[in-house]
Amino acid sequence: MTFSVVARDERSGAFGACGYTDIAGYGAIVPHVSLRGAAATQAYANVDNGLEVMQLLDAGRSAQESGEAVLAGDSGRDTRQLLVIGEGDQHFAWTGDQCIPWHGHRLEPDHVVGANSIKSAAVINAISESFSTSADVEFTLRLIQAVQAGEAAGGHVDNVEVTDDATGATTTQPTSEVFGGVMSAAVMVAAPEPEMWHNLRVDAHPSAIHQLGEVYNNARHSAERVATFYKGAIDIKPYYWRRVGLPRK
């Protein structure tokens, strides 16, 4: 099970990605962000696809051009799910027909949602509706709350088909046994005004997406204390500022 949202904040110009999965390491695999866009690579995830999409977005290609170009060179595209949002109106989503069902995606003007190995389309619809109706919420928290809404709408399937490499026989096994029974979640935001709470993750936790909300609250509280103590001396410069060659303040 994995579901994600990639989105653009129309007020600040920030891009973000947030999601949840039933293995450890969502934040190390799925989300990618820069000041030019955001992407999520999931299902039989290919991290190189996410990295290459970001390079193309940073070079001025549209989300649709970037997604199509990357998948054109991926022989495993039928097992992939790729979500991309950029600066223009043409977003991109791909769900290969070999992804674990239920699988699918949804494109909206300011966000793209995708999921696989979930119970129904209710999950991606809940994520989209939450994001669409919460424009007054701080962007990072808005992403987290949208994914939490998806989890509340149904979450992952209880069983998954497993094929024995030696015999070719297929059996149905509990998802928790196949993937280890842990969850992970993460949120990443690239913004013109970076903050300490823009890159948060929870790994190997039984309720990672809810824990991510607590981590966000703690991070906001800590950031406010740090800003007071250091009087603005700490200037946050995430990796994407170096990649696009933005000037120093």
Principal-axes shape call = globular
The description of the largest β-sheet is: 6 strands, antiparallel
Number of beta-strand segments: 12
Rg, Cα atoms, Å: 18 Å
Individual helix count: 8
User: What would CATH call the architecture?
Assistant: 4-Layer Sandwich
Low-confidence segments = none
In total, how many domains does the architecture comprise? 1
Class derived from helix and strand content: alpha+beta
Name of the CATH homologous superfamily: Aminohydrolase, N-terminal nucleophile (Ntn) domain
Content of β-strand: 25-35%
SSE series: EEHEEHHEEEEHHEEHEEHH
Mean pLDDT value = 90
Q: In which range does the helix fraction lie?
A: 25-40%
Please report the first level of CATH classification, the CATH class: Alpha Beta
State the distance separating the first and last CA atoms. 42 Å
CATH topology: Glutamine Phosphoribosylpyrophosphate, subunit 1, domain 1
Strand line-up across the major sheet: 7-8-1-2-11-12
What would you note in describing this structure?
The protein is an alpha+beta fold and about 250 residues long. It has one domain (about 1-245): Aminohydrolase, N-terminal nucleophile (Ntn) domain (Glutamine Phosphoribosylpyrophosphate, subunit 1, domain 1), CATH 3.60.20.10. It has eight helices and twelve strands. The longest helix has 23 residues, at about 210-230.
Short description:
By secondary structure, this protein is of the alpha+beta class. The protein is 34% helix and 29% strand.
Keywords:
single chain, 249 residues, alpha+beta, Glutamine Phosphoribosylpyrophosphate, subunit 1, domain 1, six-stranded antiparallel beta sheet, four-stranded antiparallel beta sheet, 8 helices, 34% helix, globular
